[in-house]
Predict the 3D structure of the following.
Amino acid sequence: MNDETVKAGLVVLGAGPGGYAAAFRAADMGLAVTLVDLEAHPGGVCLHRGCIPSKALLHVAGLLRETRTAETMGLRFGPPEIDLARLRDWKDAVVNRLTGALGDLRTKRGIAHFRGRGRLTGPRSLDVALVDGGRRTLTFDHAILATGSRPADIPNVTIDSPRVMDSTRALALEEIPARLLIIGGGVIGLELGSVYAALGSRVTVVEATPGLLPGADRDLVRVVARALGERIPEIHLETRVDALEVRGEGLVAHLRDKAGVPRQVDFDRALVAVGRRPNSDALGLEAAGVTTDARGLVTVDGQLRTSQPHIFAIGDLTPGPMLAHKASHQARVAVEAIAGQKSHFEPNAIPAVCYTDPELAWAGLTETAARERNIPCKAVRFPWAASGRAQALERPEGLTKLVVDPASERILGLGLVGRGAGDLIAEGVLAMEMGATVRDLAETIHPHPTLSETLMEAAEVFYGHCAHYYTPKRAGDPKPPIP
Ligand code: NAD
């Protein structure tokens, strides 16, 4: 049946971690929901082509590295044999298990599903071009736009060659190039650079700014940079790519350093990881009367309502960090607002994690931002070399850091670098959400021996009272929590 009109209560456009979370939540609250997405199963970029496949590959990279470092502990392994086809199948199987399970959860919840590309044709209507032909017009009372983002291009460098990859292509693991150029020393560049380096590529990272991972504190980034420096032989900061040229079987990169000195370097493949941009341009936003800012991000209020109050936008389409967990949290707020509740999106902290080895995680106010904005703060650090568990794991390079308001002793921000930092940060995020003080953290009994103790011990450093890490006393130090 073609050109059928379907009346829907709530339409959710896009089934990534924002869209499927919204649809599932709305169905659980008793709303009639229709989910529209190009894929057969929910999951979006995160599950199909992002967070999950990259974490599977990073796990393999970690295994490879551990077999090498095990020699220190008296264990010697032979060189690994990498079966690329099998590795690819395993990674795809992980993804398919998860997306298939989400498909089942969608069915169990009775959520209607149209597989196709949706475009708003007015404030209350959505045209869906179905993947297998035909169209549907959905009319709705409410809509949630959750179409995410896509990789950005490098300005002035246009090239159409399978040798120049975006993150999707890099995750497909078509081959392990001998020489790989990574343009962009952000999260994607360093995560995927780590994977390819572990699998045998000689990786070169080119980053335009003076440091890797802009946004995180430099003392934490230094630990990652030092570790990556051992696996990624060339990391060039303040360097730009003027042009990429396909020559024979390879690529020639025209690089320019900060002094303006140009040079040409040969590579087999390149990965462009210079950020992402919102998928807002082909949504029919104008027809619906939904406004965007200059960067194409959809303008929303505290409840995620767009300029049309019955249409909501969440996730990478909206201002703020482009992170799956931000999208899922916004999904809850938008659905509750549709259900008439007074929910608002007002997190104290959104954690960011770079899943390299060591991992780097940070949330809330960074020390750098506090200094730039003249916000009074005291930053305290607990080095993992003083942690029994980190030593037993042969991972003493980590660091746990708290950024504290010296007057109220509230935790304003925290950062961790080290093995499993992405998991460890959740405790600090909870502390910030609950308005906890550094004293609360210091007085919470943590299991021993764990890396989680490093949060408690960093809190003790604030009071100059940490058993495993001596800091000389200074006049004006806060009083220790235990009299
Ligand atoms: P990013 O913004 O993290 O990093 C891009 C980097 O490229 C920056 O360091 C930037 O300075 C650099 N750059 C920009 N133009 C350049 C140029 N012409 N030459 C050289 N360097 C250049 O972006 P990303 O790594 O592409 O990731 C995109 C988004 O996806 C981010 O918002 C990120 O948070 C999100 N993401 C998150 C995770 C995670 O949570 N672990 C993983 C992957 C992606």
Summary: Residues 154, 183-189, 191, 206-209, 214, 240-241, 273-276, 321-323, 353-355 surround nicotinamide-adenine-dinucleotide (CB under 6 Å).
